[in-house]
Amino acid sequence: MRHHGIHHVTVIAGPARRNLDFYTRVLGLRLVKKTVNFDDPATYHFYFGDSIGSPGSILTFFPWEHVAPGQTGTGTTQETAFRVPESALAFWEQRFIEQGVEHGKPEKRFGQSVLPFKDPDGTSLALVGIANVRTDNTWTTGAIPTEHAIQGLEGVTLLVENGEPTGAILTDVFGFREVAREGELVRYKGDAVLCSVVDVRSAGSKLPGRTGGGTVHHIAFRATDDAHQVEMVRKLVETHGLQPTEQKDRNYFRSVYFREPGGILFEIATDGPGFDADETHDNLGDELKLPAFLEARRSEIEGKLPALT
Ligand code: ZN
Fold it and tell me: What's the CA-to-centroid distance between 105 and ligand 1, angstroms?
């Protein structure tokens, strides 16, 4: 069965050790894969998610020790939101105070309670309270019990000059539909349980953003399999005049990339093979995993990566 939603969101971070600590200890996500950026193997690529790394639970990072901070503006992702049980928002507000996490006041958006916060690199994040949330693959830690734990991603807010062409890609290619409007925001929704909300904000001629620390590098939408991905690529080329890259093997999924009309880098990632392709479920994230073509350079790569402890 096809699920329309986001597969993962990838963000640029500062120091690797601080990034790992924030997402695993402070937010209580599972490190489901510790690998390197396949195109830049001296940089880690961390994947955080639920207990099995479900599509839609995955937030990934390229941590650069001396990254220059980025700037939100048009052509960038303004915010990335997680799902938590509605009843857990008070717990999180308290936890953010205790852990010194920069956060805002709870607010209402499209009728939902939202708690905005930032990671140590200034990445704009939020927790969205969901009623009757499913807790199938919850990852729990001592400090964050199941009833409060993050339940994957909820969605993203995109900031573009004019949202119409971006919305057309979401509805025509990715199977989302427009469900609501609030001010300059248009909400699009896919049918997947996890990470199926995209809010598009048409900002007019605001300043363009700049990629760097604390900004989203790209957003990957789900394709069920290669055939589904081929279908999406055909629509992008024939209906929208876009030129996606050829397919790249990312070990845990297979990807194509393109820049959407608003300037944001989009990816289409297959649901499979998944994060248990090279580790058992019990051992996800335990060891540094390298793709076969980098295995011969393991000791050189390990020597260049920053210390994590
Ligand atoms: Zn990606």
Answer: 31
Residue 309 belongs to a domain: no
Span 249-306, pLDDT tens digits: 999 999 999 999 999 999 999 999 999 999 999 999 999 999 999 999 999 999 999 9
CA of 249 to the centre of ligand 1 (A): 11
Q: Give 11 Cα–ligand 1 centroid separation in angstroms.
A: 9
Ligand 1 center–CA 45 separation, angstroms: 10
Length in residues, the chain = 309
CA–centroid distance, 111 to ligand 1, in Å, is 30
296 located within any domain: yes
- Residue 75: inside a domain, yes or no? yes
Rounded distance between C-alpha atoms, residue 4 and residue 200, angstroms = 17
pTM for this structure? 0.98
Distance in angstroms (rounded) separating the CA atoms of residues 171 and 156 = 15
Confidence of residue 136 (pLDDT cuts 50, 70, 90): confident
Q: What's 170's domain CATH number? A: 3.10.180.10
**pLDDT per residue over 190-216, tens digit each?**
999 999 999 999 999 889 999 999 999
